[in-house]
Amino acid sequence: DNSLIIITSDHGEEFREHGSIGHGTLYDEVIKIPLIIKMPKKIKVVNRRIGKNLIQGNIDIAPTILDILNIDIPDEFQGNSVLPIIKGLKKNISPYQASEKLTAWDRFYQIAVRDMSYKYIYTTFFDIKNLKNFRINNEKFELYDLVNDKNEKYNLVLSKDKIKLYYQGLVDNFIFTNVLVNVDVPKKIEIEREVKERLRSLGYIK
C-alpha cells in the first residue's frame, strides 16, 4: 500500500515506418512510450488516465517521484511533476514537450517539439570539433498534423509557413535556454561483472 511503482521505457523501436530500423529517430514509434504509475495509498488519485490529454516525458519522472515523497525539487531539474495532474489540481504541466537526439557517429542533431496538435522536427548537421556550432549546413524541417496524420507520413512544412515559424521559435528557445548540467565523472568506472555481461549481451560493449 505504501509502495510507489513506475513502469516505463527508454524508447520504442522503428521497423521501417519511416525508412529505418532501430531507435535513431524522433518519430512517435520511437519516442512515444508507456508510463504507468502505481501511487501510494495515501495519495488521492483523481485522474487515473492522464496521457490522452497531457504532454509529458521521461524528464518529468524524477521531479514527480520527489514531489510524491514530499522532497523539494532542485532548481536545476528541467522536468515538471505530474502529481498536480494526478490529484486533479492542474490540467497540464507544459504547453509542449521537446525530445533531442545528438550522436557523434552520424554527426547530426535533431530536436522534436510537439503539443496536442502538431509535431515539428528540426535536423542539422554539426561540427564534431565544435558542438556549439549548430546549423552549419543541411538543415531539414518536418511538420506533422498529429490530429489528422497520427503516423507522421505527410510533411506539411512547405504549406504551413506560419505554423512552421511558431514551432521553430520553440526549437530556438529550447536550444538557447537548455541548461547543461555539469556532472563530475570519474576517469575510471568500475563495473560489476554481471552488469558487464548484460551490457555485452545487448551489444553496448565488446
UniProtKB/TrEMBL annotation:
UniProt GO MF annotations: arylsulfatase activity; glucuronate-2-sulfatase activity
Domain N-sulphoglucosamine sulphohydrolase C-terminal, chain residue ranges per copy: 17-162
Pfam families: SGSH_C
InterPro entries: Alkaline_phosphatase_core_sf (IPR017850), GAG-degrading_sulfatase (IPR051849), SGSH_C (IPR032506)
Official protein name in the record: N-sulphoglucosamine sulphohydrolase C-terminal domain-containing protein
